[in-house]
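Customer escalation, tier 2.

The customer says the design service returned an amino acid string that "doesn't look like it belongs to this structure." They asked us to rerun it and document both sides in this ticket. The original structure tokens are below, unchanged.
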């Protein structure tokens, strides 16, 4: 049950991520039914050709499990550059697609009105509208996981700029630094995302850890290589956030995603580093995301319901 979402039309919600995808059927009370995590079928190119049929299979399973809940719309969210106005996935470096009309394809496949937006914008909107940061007008919701991206809210309204706003992970932190999946070098995402922390540690230590939490655990146990990788990631995050503070002056920065689960091990040193970069700037309140791992699904459901409300 998601009491935050509240009553409304029943809808299907899908959150396609760089590693896995989540699916749920949302009933009229706002409960998330049959939440399931499925590996994303990433292909060398045109991943959408594998994703869309899988969404159909997941929808049929959800409908079979809950036959009394009849969805009236579909909400789909995905990473990369997404143009909300046209419903097109312009680019995703992690999922290998370009210029895919997801909203139209989803509507045709399901025979329902469809919404399509960026995964972090959807999760960020759920967080901003339904979480404690709603008391502020200018907010940045940053998700740190496979990649790094932000949802931007200015004067209480989302700012997307044709889908290109919020790509904090692709701001350059160290010119000629680490190679990034986007084709650039020195991007924040290539240094400080959970995936980058894992890859960088394994490279320098000759290890085989599977996640950033393992790197942090080793750092806390005295592993010098792990401590250096973790510290450099925090340095990069603080620098990237300081640029966002200088440009947007948010009252609050909400941190979510897998890396935010590190708690004080992330928030305390990050706040200290960020403070060192700021002079006259507005000091944002660093907040932990409150909705949890299904924020993307909640945001997808909110967008799907909005399609019906504005039909």
């Amino acid at each position: 049950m998601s009491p935050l979402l509240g009553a409304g039309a029943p809808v299907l919600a899908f959150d396609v991520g760089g590693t896995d995808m989540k699916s749920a059927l949302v009933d009229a009370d706002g409960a998330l039914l049959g939440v399931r995590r499925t590996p994303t079928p990433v292909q060398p190119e045109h991943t959408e050709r594998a994703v869309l049929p899988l969404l159909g299979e997941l929808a049929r399973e959800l409908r079979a499990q809950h036959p009394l809940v009849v969805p009236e719309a579909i909400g789909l969210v995905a990473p990369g550059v997404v143009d909300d106005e046209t419903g097109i996935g312009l680019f995703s470096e992690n999922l290998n697609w370009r210029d895919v009309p997801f909203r139209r394809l989803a509507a045709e496949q399901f025979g329902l009105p469809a919404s399509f937006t960026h995964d972090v914008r959807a999760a960020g909107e759920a967080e901003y509208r339904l979480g404690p940061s709603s008391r502020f007008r200018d907010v940045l919701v940053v998700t740190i996981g496979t990649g790094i991206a932000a949802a931007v809210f200015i004067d209480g309204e989302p700012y997307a700029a044709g889908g290109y706003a919020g790509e904090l992970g692709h701001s350059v932190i160290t010119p000629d630094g680490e190679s990034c999946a986007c084709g650039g070098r020195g991007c924040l995402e290539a240094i400080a995302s959970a995936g980058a922390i894992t890859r960088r540690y394994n490279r320098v230590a000759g290890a085989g850890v599977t996640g950033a939490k393992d790197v942090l655990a080793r750092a806390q146990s005295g592993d010098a290589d792990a401590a250096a990788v973790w510290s450099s990631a925090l340095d990069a995050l603080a620098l990237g956030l300081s640029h966002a503070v200088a440009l947007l002056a948010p009252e609050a920065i909400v941190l979510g995603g897998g890396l935010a689960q590190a708690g004080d091990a992330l928030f305390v040193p990050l706040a200290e580093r960020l403070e060192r970069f700021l002079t006259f700037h507005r000091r944002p309140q660093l907040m932990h995301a409150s909705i949890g791992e299904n924020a993307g699904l909640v945001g997808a459901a909110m967008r799907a319901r909005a399609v019906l409300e504005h039909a």
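Tier 2 assessment: The sequence is consistent with the input. The longest helix spans residues 224-248. The chain has two domains: 11-124+293-309, 135-288. Sent an explanation to the customer and offered a walkthrough call.
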